[in-house]
Queue: 3 jobs
Job 1
Amino acid sequence: MIRLRIHRTTWPRHALVLTDTPRPDCRRCDGDGGMTHDYGDPVTGEYAGTDWEPCTCWNEHRRWILLPLPRPPRRLRTSRTPAAVSDPWAATGHSEEPPF
């Protein structure tokens, strides 16, 4: 049985995607979709990282693109603030923001 959800993705393109989710009552992963395994350096024995092993109750690569989303226009992607507003030590010598 497939448990589907809608997910927004940005790579390789902005889109709404239908994805599979882990089985919530899975005894192997407790609904997380996988298990983590800590490992250490064989020489020093200290912590070196964590591996993640996906569970068999779902397929993390199963997805379908529902709706490609357009990219926002370039003028909306950048935030432009005047130097006097964002920098209190600008050429005007004071901030134009309220003191609270």
Note: The CA atoms of residues 49 and 56 lie 23 Å apart.
Job 2
Amino acid sequence: MIMRFDINKIMAGMLIAAASLTSCKKLVTIPSNPPSAITQQQQFADSATAITAVAGVYAYNIGNGFAYTSGQLTTSCGLSADELSYNYADDALQFYSYNLTPLNSGVITLWGYPYQSIYQVNAVLSGITGNANLSPSFQQQITGEMKVVRALYYFNMVNLFGGVPLVTSISYKETQRLPRSSAADIYDQVKADLTDATEKLTDSYPSAGRARPNLYTAIALLAKVNLYQSNWQSAYNEADSVIRSGLYNLTNTPLTGVFLNGSQEAIWQIPGNQGYYGVSDAQHFIPVSPGAIPRYILTGSLLAAFETGDKRMQDWVGSTVVNGTTVYYPYKYKNVSASSTPTEDQMILRLAEMYLIRAEAAAHLNHLTEALADVNIIRARAGLSASTADPASQTAVLKAVMHERQVELFCEWANRWYDLKRTGTAEAVLGAVKPGFSATDALYPIPQAQIQLNNVLTQNPGY
């Protein structure tokens, strides 16, 4: 039997010992005998102890658990794209103005936390593989889950930094001086992990909620990966499979329900709780008090992309009046306090994105009417009429798809930043709305400390 657990009830203190480090001087630096730790053998002595390590992988804790709980990915990439502007003169402003340095604290976070979390994943895989104390079904389930999580990390790493060191081991000797693998090799690893996961997972979620991946989580992420690699037929087939599974439904009334715990649109969502506040996006974006200027403000170009009557503008954009001027901020997550109700979860993958992936792939396959039909499903949910794009023009249909991605997926998982780069439109779009962008800004710098510690690492061009 596969053990089930409620991830909300497992204490963050039950993380595996090796992953309890709060910083990462090298990719993997583990003290030989931490005084407050249990051994790996003890951690994986049986399914009950092993499952606590698994829970640690999903824990919503900055630096200990799921890597993207700080909100850094959303804010940094929103600033680099045309979604957000910034009101303070600190490191974050460098993402907006394209003058990043390898010493930037946000860059260090975007590099360091995923590698800490990758170590956790690799430790679980190492601890369960071939473990006679664990049933084959348990090993199969957890292996599939961990490979989905690892694939998510490397998917984001390759899109942020290009080729990065590929760490699949917990051996310090093997990982301390790894060179950068090529972007192609990283993508190959991502696809290999996801393909293996699809062979190991079932369509049932293994615990309450949708924090632990199922079969369709792996397929949905694989659809996104294939979209980014222009594998149109594969992306189409995978997104279509998720949509047709019958497990997910678009949340309609109101749109604020999309990001709630238990959302039927959720393919993968992590319970958001940082102790005193919920999902970190709310803490970053919502003003501290009425009349206070938000730290991050939605740009005029994004606001202009919303059509009159768009429910997404009404439900997912907040506003406040500052010195007589109305300013707007992201408002998909509304609970600044962890005790606020209804409970919100950190959405990772959702059904609306699958419709837009299928639409984009269909357009590239020249199934233009079908592509527009998917676009119109998302538009109808937003209270809009059908797209006016010419159904005989592939260029027009693709433009309609990308427009819908902009207003549907704004300030979620760096989608806009990645879209501009993968479609080759970053320079034209960003150059028109703010100065300073050049081709080398498409990748972030490798943190300087990492290069100093590992002299086989090379820096990205332009830094």
Note: The radius of gyration is 22 Å.
Job 3
Amino acid sequence: MRLRIKVDDWPRRALVLTDTPHPHCPDCRGEGGTEHPYCDHTGEYAGTDWDVCPCWDDTRRLVLLPLPRWRRRRGDDRDPWGPAGYSDEPPF
């Protein structure tokens, strides 16, 4: 298992611990799957299918920290955690 931390937006914004593809996998070469472009009945490009490689479980996730929803109105550039619109705490 090769873990990393990333921000996920669905179903709610959160920091999650997730699995990554095996970097030396001979099937996907560390990309996690294989793309297959396909055509419609006229022969034009219609999209891409994605086959997930067995070296990676893209559904394995653990939520570490739910993040607040950023709701900014026009002209409202305040920091939601700052008392006066900005943080007056030192950076350490």
Note: The chain has a mean pLDDT of 81.
